[in-house]
Amino acid sequence: MCRMNTKNQSLKTIDCRALEILKINKWDWEPDSRVSYPLMPRTSRRFGSIDSNPLLILKNSTETGWRLNDILLAAKVLMNSREEQHYTDEAEMRRVFGLVYDVLRFRKILDRALDNVGFWQRYGLLRKRERLVWLLLYDMHGRKFSRIHSNSAIAARNHSLKEADLLDVEEALLDMKTKVAAGVSRLRIGSSALSLDELLPAHLRIAEGVTWGEEGSIASGWVNSSKIGSRKKFIQEMQKLGFSLCLDCSPTSELEEHQYVFDPLCPKVVNIHERARERLAVSQLVRNHSFIFLERSLCLGAAALAQAFRVGRLSGPIILTHSLAPRHTGYLAELLADMENAGRLLAFSVGDNCANHQAYLKDIGISMQRCKLFSERYMSVPPLPEIDRATVVLATPPCSYTGVQDVVDLAIARGGDLQLLESLTSHQAESAEQSRNLLAEQMSTLKYALTRPNIQLVIYEVHTLLPCETTDMSRQVVQQVNRMAIDKFQRDHQKQGKSPAKDSSGKKLKSEDRRKSIESVIRLKDHSKSNTESEEISAAEVPIPESDLFEMANLNEVYERDCSKLLNQGSYIVVIKRKKIIQFNSQFMIKVAENKGIFGELSGQSEPQDNLMQSDQMEPSNINRKRRKSSKIQFDRITAPTHATTARALRDKHLCPRHQQHLVNEVSSLEKQVREARRRDAHRWWDEVAHAWRSNSNNADDYRFQALRTDPLTSKILSHVMHITYAELDRSSFAVP
Q: In terms of pLDDT, which residue wins out, 136 or 37?
């Protein structure tokens, strides 16, 4: 009791230190860069060794081995039963599919052992149910072909097998148990193999299943922030289950069974001891989808996309070309939820499981507003504005999956994908035809994503060890796309050079200027043939915009640190980005509008016609003759009138009679207003002059002026006597200077 209290106090002390460290982090779910990886490399131990396990049937075990009920459920899975399977928890589901995967891996060896001892000749009727025979034989080999000593356990086992229609298979194997055990041993000894897994092909030996032995490995999963809002709350929930956060994970230290660490590269990803998986799988954290198990290697691409999206300050929707699993889609959607400018996630190639996929996302708290699923392929979906606005793509095309470390975890993440296990355990997995099909799908997916106009960044992720699916293929596609962009730019530049440019000052030119422009067009047509060579040279000399070309980068540039030791072996992730990334923000849209003239003609771009004519007469520079020739041609193209300007200058104008009558009335009324204004101005002028003369004269009475005016109604001359009677003008004031 004292030891338990001491342990609990130490856990509380460690978790208090963890909560204090959280205050230093900028982002709540920021990866812990202090953690060294790998924690416990799988390559340091042998996995899948059947002979090294002393006893695999542990009736009351909660950590390792399979149980009788797991065998019954695995039999239904192997026979492709249409009944919907219900599992008590995820731990049971993992044991079932781990057993199925091992049976499919060793089926060739088990079948050859049965054939060598004449089992199929004696029990030929069981050939139709050969998968069930392999399952029970694998179970017997796991128990070292030993008997179950308890009579009650034998009775319970026989009763369960009888209800599942497996008792006859069990009795047939028991009848030839000695011969079958000897046949398996002869196969192993004949190949000098210490265990049966050494008899497997290379691709089946690398792709491991469930570790049934006492030795543990590393399990991983991600925290659903829709259910658990903060890291602090998750640490508290894990503390209730008896787990503590490891704060000192050096390369020499090992992760204990009761410890867990946050991943140093993937946000929200937690690594735990494999033997603690089942204890966590039966907890409420997993039942209510607060913690979701997922192989760490499947989270690397989504984490790299989130980091690149944040560093590049991008915006808009995000495209997922192929949905690896519903849990993988959910993890990416949760990462995008924490980014301010991220749009909706668009996941393609969901297939026939679109409804189940959507239901799972709804259960974990991801709605349609955050993630939209498409059953169609990314390359065949109808055009949508939201797809065209996407700027980032996570390309995860189908691959050989030879680099996946935990194949069972991937199958469970897909909801129990038996076809995946069958394809990976098939001896035709590396056939030439299948490799060509996978390579064609990968190349077409990557090429289509890179040729979209708004795509600025592509994260290419595959889990394979084959170079043809990784570096060679991606480099070839990038070179091909860049070559296409260069050719297209040169063609467009040549077309712009051959077509006459619009005259911005055409509306201001008079008829004489238009005739001169028309003559310049005729002169250009006469010299077009002689200038073809210089046009091609000028097109080749124009630099291609960096925003049209792509380049390949690694994760070190995205994270700004060395990430080579943080990646799983077999996971290939490359960042393909434009050399100059365009941010589609408000400033970019304003600049586009200015270039298109939506805000009117810019003052800096408009020049008077006189300046243009003067620049035409400037002396040529001393660069080279071809460049001077191309510059002169380029200037003539800019000053040349368009077809619309020429048509307006030559066509006759026909005025509307009704509009002309309105103009006549407006002219007559305007003339009346002008006459009346002039009359008022003259009257005021004479009043001012008379007042000036009268005020400056000493003898004002001597001036006898008489002003005459006309009656506006009768047009008669009226007399008007003024006080000013005399005025003398100084003629010198009217002299012309």
A: 136
Q: What pairs with residue 273 in β-bridges?
A: 218
Half-sphere exposure for 140 (CA within 13 Å, toward CB): 24
Quickly name the fold that domain 298-419+433-469+553-578 has: Rossmann fold (3.40.50)
Q: Are 573 and 461 in contact (CB under 8 A)?
A: yes
Burial bucket for residue 631 (CB in 10 Å: 0-12, 13-18, 19+): middle
- In tens, the pLDDT along 179-191 reads 999 999 999 898 8
Q: What is the pLDDT of residues 614-630, one digit of tens each?
A: 444 444 444 455 555 56
Q: With DSSP H G I counted as helix, E B as strand and the rest as coil, what are the percentages for the chain, rounded to 5?
A: 55, 10, 35
Q: 97 is written with which tokens?
A: 């599919």
Single-letter code of the amino acid located at 52: S
Sign of CA pseudo-dihedral 636, 642, 647, 649: negative
Peptide bond into 38 cis (omega under 30): yes
2-43+216-293 homologous superfamily: Sun protein; domain 3 (3.30.70.1170)
Q: Say what the pTM is.
A: 0.71
Q: What is the spatial distance between Cα 674 and Cα 482, in angstroms, rounded to a whole number?
A: 70
Residue 55's pLDDT is what?
A: 36
Q: What is the DSSP string of 433-494?
A: HHHHHHHHHHHHHHHHHHTSTT--EEEEEEE-S-GGGTHHHHHHHHHHHHHHHHHHHHHHHH
Q: List the one residue out of 493, 475, 489, 488 whose CA is nearest residue 550.
A: 475
The contacts found for 72-78 with CB under 8 angstroms, 24 or more apart, are 72/160, 72/161, 72/164, 72/166, 74/99, 74/100, 74/103, 74/135, 75/132, 75/135, 75/164, 75/166, 77/416, 77/418, 78/103, 78/131, 78/132, 78/135
243 vs 488: CA distance, rounded Å: 59
CA dist 415 and 77 (Å) reads 12
711 CB-near residues (< 8 Å, 6+ apart): 717, 718
Tokens of 361: 């996302």
Strand-pair partners of 61: none
Ranges in the chain annotated CATH 3.40.50.150: 298-419+433-469+553-578
